[in-house]
Amino acid sequence: MRGFGVVKMTAAALLCAGVVGGCGGKEDSAAAGSADDAMAEELWGELQGYESWGRFDNQSATPVLSDDHSGNYVVSYYDEALLGWALSGEAPDGGISVKEVYSAPDDTSPVALTVMKKVAGYDPEGGDWFWAWYAMDGTVQAAGAVSSCSGCHSAASTDFVFGE
Ligand code: HEC
What we know:
This protein is of the alpha+beta class. It has one domain (2-153). It has helices spanning 2-18, 30-46, 80-85, 147-153; strands spanning 64-65, 73-78, 96-102, 112-118, 129-135, 140-144. It has a 6-stranded antiparallel beta sheet. It binds heme C. Heme C binds next to strand 2, strand 3, strand 4, strand 5 and helix 4.
């Protein structure tokens, strides 16, 4: 399986450069890190089937060049709670959004998933969003109150969610 290892490393290098503009690793203390890892594993289970979730009217169902996820192509999905919320005021507790990351617009499978989940009381400074970035086999690349994610998403007009 040597070939597979090489492919995985290439994908990881691509994502480090592309998804968040660098791989700083996990940002929290070891204790918070393991709690975050457990949450990330649970969230991976919760988001299965996300392909049948919806998106807002102005959004594309096929990969479009991201405004800000550094040269990647993306498709976003929102669960029922976030779709019902409709980008007005504070997002409902438990709402989840998944964004597929593609390396080229005509690729048929994503190379990573970036995910945000509203968890009341989790991180008031970051809008109480839990952030996670997964390889497609569910391996967690980053998870928790990831400041690079929340820092950029704080520019969104409604509660850290761009919806575009
Ligand atoms: C430099 C800015 C920036 C950074 C850093 C960033 N994002 Fe995003 N994100 C965006 C933008 C802009 C969108 C809207 C769609 C697009 O153009 O990519 C978005 C969309 C999303 C969405 C779809 C929900 C929405 O806001 O509509 C998710 C989920 C998401 N990002 C997760 C993450 C995670 C997880 C991280 C950290 C690993 C992260 N993002 C880091 C800018 C950023």
